[in-house]
Each structure stands twice: as C-alpha cells, then as structure tokens.
Design a protein that fits this description.
The protein is α/β, with parallel strands linked by helices and 378 residues long. The chain is 28% helix and 26% strand. The strands form three sheets. Strands 3, 5, 6, 9, 10, 17 and 18 form a seven-stranded mixed beta sheet that branches. The chain has a six-stranded parallel beta sheet with strand order 13-12-11-14-15-16, with helices on both faces. Strands 1-2-7-8-4 form a five-stranded mixed beta barrel. Helix 1 crosses helix 11, helix 5 packs across helix 6 and helix 5 packs across helix 10. It is globular and about 60 Å long. The structure holds zinc ion (2 copies). The site of one zinc ion has 5 residues, from loops.
Length: 378
Amino acid sequence: MRIKAAVLHHPSRPVTVEVVELDPPKAAEVLVRVAAAGVCHSDVRYADGDLGAGRWPIVLGHEGAGVVEAVGEGVTHVAPGDHVAFCFVPACRSCRFCLAGKPNLCTEVARHGARGMLMDGTSRLRLDDGTTLQHGLRTACFAERAVVAAGGAVPIPRELPLWQAALLGCGVVTGLGAVRNVARVQAGDAVVVVGCGGVGLQVIAGARLAGADPLIALDRVPEKLELALAQGATHAVDSSADDKPLATIRRLTGGGADFAFEVVGRPETIRIAWDAIRPGGTAVVVGLVPDGVEASIPAIEFLSDKSLRGTYYGSGDPAAELPGLAELALQGRLDLAGVITHVDGLDGVEAALDRLRRGEGARTVLVVDADLAGAPQL
Ligand SMILES: [Zn+2]
Ligand SMILES: [Zn+2]
C-alpha cells in the first residue's frame, strides 16, 4: 500500500514527508495504523548521521501508538481494532540475553536492527524507484502505517488517549526503567537528573514515584526546569544562571547525590553526573552519545566506590512493563500530557527535529491521524 512517511534520504538533507510503498505484514508481524508519534532526541542522532554510516535511507520514528489494522500469520496477542503502543525491541525470547532475563539486549533485535530491518532480516518499506528503506529502530512510525514485529505492538487500554500513549514506548520505558531497573531508587534517595527533555522528564517522574528526596533537576533552559518542577522535582538548578551548579547540588544533597542520571548524551554532562554523586553513588548514562565520542572521568574516584552505569531502553522487559506504565498514566500517577510541549502534523517532523537540536521544548507529538489520536489541538 502507499503511505505518507518521513524519509531521511541522507543526513545532510532535511527529512521529507513523501509517499512510499509499504508491504503487508508477513508471519509474526502486525500492521498498525499510526495515530501519533513522539519525536525523540535519538531521531536527531539518526537525522544528523551521528550513529555512523549505513543508516539511511530510512523512515524515522520509534515512539508512537495506533490501532491494529491487520495481523500476519500466527499473531494471536492482538487483533484488528486493538490499541497498541510500539515497543522498538521485539525480543526473540530465545537468545542468550533473552533467556538471561535481559530482553532489552536481545541479540536478534540488535543483529537486524543495526541494518534497519525487521526480525526476518528484510524491510517492508521502499521508495517508488524500488530502493529499500530501513525501518527506524524496527518501528518507522513517522508514517501513516507501520509494519512491526508482533512483539513490537503492545496492547494498551483503550481509555488512554493515543496522542499520550505515543510516549510510552521510548521516553516512558527508558526513563522509568533507568530509575526502577537500573538505579532501583528508594524513598529518601538523593537524585539528580541532568537534562530535562522528553526522557529526562520521565526520569524525574519515575524518581518522584520512587520517593526520591531531594530530587534535583539540572538544565540550562528555564522552560524545561518549570516542566521538571511540575513533574515532581523538588529543586531546579539552572546551569545558564548558576555558575557553580555542582556546588549547589552538593549543598542540596549534603555532599553529593546517591544517583545522578545523565539524559543528554554529551561527555560534559556525563562528567557533571559523575561529579554530582557522593562516594558510593551511581551515575547512570541514559543519553545517547554520538558514535565515536568518548567521555572522561577522574579514574582515581573509582576508589571512592563510585559507579558509572549504562542503560538501554529501561534495562528491563519493555514489552512486559508497557501495560503497567499505561495503567500508571490512566491512574493519573504519570502525567504524559504535561511533558508534551508541541503538537503538530506529520509535516512538522523537521521543525520538531530542529527544536530538539536547539534544545527547545520537551516532547513534540506528531498527530498522524487526528481522529484516532484524540489530541486537543489541530
Ligand atoms: Zn527515543
Ligand atoms: Zn533475544
């Protein structure tokens, strides 16, 4: 079928919305009518060629929600009409990592995903001239429809508006997972969150739910710090105005945080997160750093029992956790609408990427199908 989709032809050129060809779902795949999609900083990394060569042409978009339109042979967990959120790691459930309880690191997903392919190693997307298009993070949901692996379409309650559910599959899974599965923040832990964009705000929401106190937000954009306070941060430190933000953090935490989360993806902010933790504390790097960039820390400080941790996609079982996260949103304990600073149509994708490049706003949600999405604007 012919669909409109946001295509990155080459990192030196803007993403363009155009008509492409989408093949029907094969066995163990699902066709989803996309309602809405969130624009994530990882999309900027793709669009700017920061993840290395060979990742284009590609249809971008990995965070979104929609309605199942058709299922391939053997798919039983969803049926046409079901509401789903995308999960960009459709774990194989049989590789070494999956069997060890680390499905976020599934080797099959990594093998095909690095080439932009679905789980059978092929693409369902192509340009009119026959050129194969890659699927952005196995999802490619900046498009009217998406064919994803069965495990990439997770059923969610119908009551949750799809324009909000769009955020579940990346920002929410990643942010809350870093807090719950990696740091395992407990009530009363001192937490610092470096970077308050779309994912950083979910880290703050997760830390607030875990009872972190103090819960300090650090950013250089006052608007984002306002959003952080609304998500439950107890303190906001504006690094554009405070010339000694680390001294402020040490004062607020009585000598350093138990956990610092870096949600920017830059060596400087990784260093800030490291410097913000106390002896025995842990810095968790959530941000996606461009390929080839190194970060440095004073290594003697390993002697003070400090740890530097990585995480990918919440470091848990994203597909299994997603329905529970949707439930939190339905109960009003997770404010998804509150982190959405812009709502636009599919054509607004390049403008949304530009805002992220400039560090403006938190999440843009692209409303692809206004009737399904239920968004207040447009
Ligand atoms: Zn993302
Ligand atoms: Zn696996």
